[in-house]
Amino acid sequence: MNKKILIVEDIKSIRKAIHDLLFEKYDVYSAGDYEEAVDILEQTKIDLLITDIKMPGKSGLDLILYIREKFPNTQYSLITAYDINQYIHFAREYNVWNIIPKYSSLDLRYIEVMVDKLLYKDIFGIEKYFPDLFIKTDTPTTGFETPHENQLVYKIIRSDEERNKICERIGKFMEGKGAPSSIHQILEELTSNAMIRAPRDSQGKSKYQYEIVEKDIVVPHKEVRLSENDYFQIGYGMYQNIFFLVTRDYFGALKKEEILLRLDRNITPDSTTGFPPGLTDSHGRGLFICREMADQIIFNIHKKKQTEVIAIMENFDIKAYKSLSIFEVE
């Protein structure tokens, strides 16, 4: 039996575009507003709701609240033409892990992949977004290798020294091909997370940084050399005018709640100071900056087993609004 999806969108052309994208694989229902959506939900067991945020009458946020109360087993996600950062606090409070902006030429592809990942829990792999991308893993494990067009190359990182060398080579290569200069900082943040913050011991404590939990402070070790079980992968490459970075660690220690906490702390102003409290964070701010610099950041997490972070940058179209894409499986 096909999974059932409900699309709630007041603009008929967008509603139809998403319907046409999904109807061959799923039973797709559609509604133009809150009331019509509720009627369908009360008559049909819906597996996944995709709703616009701003609609005439009650909003998509109201619909999420209704779903959570009446149909707790129904998954949900949001789409919007507005700044997603305005809704990060709501997302954190009500467990919204995916919000997609409408404006990108890749939106429909992202929606299709998001639906598949949410419903079937097969979450890993950048090739889901770009099926023609050639993934190269049969290479020497370390050292920079120039990727061909439409190719992603994976390398294993074993130490801080190796990380610094390959990040410098990747950054220079991609910038020379037209990637934004922010590629260097994105590389630093993603690889630091995979090498320093991800590895945990059997008690769940960090292996390569000191944590002062009560003060929300972390201090990384210097000149880290990873144990063999702690090695991580970095993937890098290009597809037409799009640049990719991928990190994979094998701990799955990053939590979706932690991601939203850090984003929220750097976006939502404190009621007393008027400034986001994350301005004073000693960690977590890098994640926010990384998301702001890339066009897309996608988090794929298998709890206690693997974390994959995908950064996508386009050299022809700077995105003002950033998506929220977090997927987690047990």
Structural features, described:
The chain is an alpha/beta fold and about 325 residues long. The protein has two domains: about 5-120, Rossmann fold; about 125-330, Histidine kinase-like ATPase, C-terminal domain (Heat Shock Protein 90). The protein has nine helices and 14 strands. It has helices spanning about 10-20, 35-45, 60-70, 90-95, 105-120, 160-175, 185-195, 255-265, 285-295, and strands at about 5-10, 25-30, 50, 75-80, 100, 135, 150-155, 210, 215-220, 230-240, 240-250, 295-300, 305-315, 325-330. The strands form two sheets. It has a twelve-stranded mixed sheet with strand order 2-1-3-4-5-14-12-13-11-10-7-6, with helices on both faces. It has a two-stranded antiparallel sheet with strand order 8-9. Strand 3, helix 3 (about 60-70) and strand 4 form a beta-alpha-beta unit.
Q: Determine the strand fraction and express it as a percent band.
A: 15-25%
Count of discrete domains: 2
Structural class: alpha/beta
Element-by-element helix/strand order: EHEHEHEHEHEEHHEEEEHHEEE
State the main characteristics:
330 residues, alpha/beta, Rossmann fold, Heat Shock Protein 90, twelve-stranded mixed β-sheet, two-stranded antiparallel sheet, 9 helices
